[in-house]
């Protein structure tokens, strides 16, 4: 891949300053903090502490989500023969990154990370500058056309062959569910039959249950910093997964995906708040 494509920086300085305001929480830095990362500021830590007061098990859930995504990547390689991945809204580099998981199973695998968070961009591009198997594209996942035309994406991935698409804890940052459906459909339309999709998404059953109350409390607190946040019902999340074949056990919570293991619900039931699914494009 040409060096100029790897170093592509299409964003504008004025927009950068707003997006990199350290006095406001960042989605990427907040998630990194839940995973035990160090790349955060006081605004991120204040929101983190408020969320943990509501759901003390939340950091454990974030780590379980990370482990699940690693398992999903392995499943795509083993069962689908996937050797190239598009990790959308990837966030900050941390332990068990997609390319590290993929390369253990397939030394020829390639991964492109996509994010428009400035902290994620700077760390991702620096970490992967000399990596021949992993790349970082500074782009907004809500614009599939721009993402797929990005020189890093088009230079690293062969979109005429099956691709593993990863959307891990990111679609809830978009309010409009119809827009989310269109975004996912556009990515799936751009890749051939035999491509795979892995998704994790926060659940709010909105049914008056204790789980719904817990989810609503978290959602409300997050909205203070991220007004576009929307946790979704199982039906809404399922509606995003159209035109694909779900892999068993389907769209389920983490506790159901890993029955009897450490991801089982704790006293607060937090593990039930995250729905996960792996699917294949027929």
List the helices and strands and how they pair.
Elements: H1 3-6, H2 13-19, H3 27-34, H4 42-54, H5 58-80, E1 84-88, H6 98-105, E2 110-115, H7 118-127, E3 134-138, H8 144-149, H9 151-156, E4 164-168, H10 177-189, E5 196-202, H11 210-225, H12 234-240, E6 245-246, E7 252-253, H13 254-257, E8 274-280
Parallel strand pairs: 1-2, 1-4, 2-3, 4-5
Antiparallel strand pairs: 5-8, 6-8, 7-8
Keywords: Methyltransferase, Transferase
GO biological process, one term: methylation
GO molecular function: methyltransferase activity
Written overview of the protein:
It comes from Kribbella steppae. Residues 1-20 are annotated as: Disordered. InterPro entries: SAM-dependent_MTases_sf, SAM_dep_MeTrfase_SAV2177_type. With 282 residues, the chain is of the alpha/beta class. The protein has a single domain (3-280), classed as Rossmann fold, CATH 3.40.50. Helix content is 44%, strand content 14%. It has 13 helices and 8 strands. Strands 1, 2, 3, 4, 5, 6, 7 and 8 form an 8-stranded mixed beta sheet that branches.
Overall pLDDT metric: 87
The domain tally reads 1
Total of DSSP H or I helical runs spanning 4+ residues: 13
Round the Cα radius of gyration to an integer and report it: 18 Å
Count of DSSP strands: 8
Q: Main beta sheet: strand number and arrangement?
A: 8 strands, mixed
Shape, per Cα inertia axes = globular
Order of helices and strands: HHHHHEHEHEHHEHEHHEEHE
What is the CATH-assigned architecture? 3-Layer(aba) Sandwich
Q: Can you tell me the CATH class?
A: Alpha Beta
Protein name: S-adenosyl methyltransferase
GO biological process, one term: methylation
Region (Disordered): 1-20
Keywords: Methyltransferase, Transferase
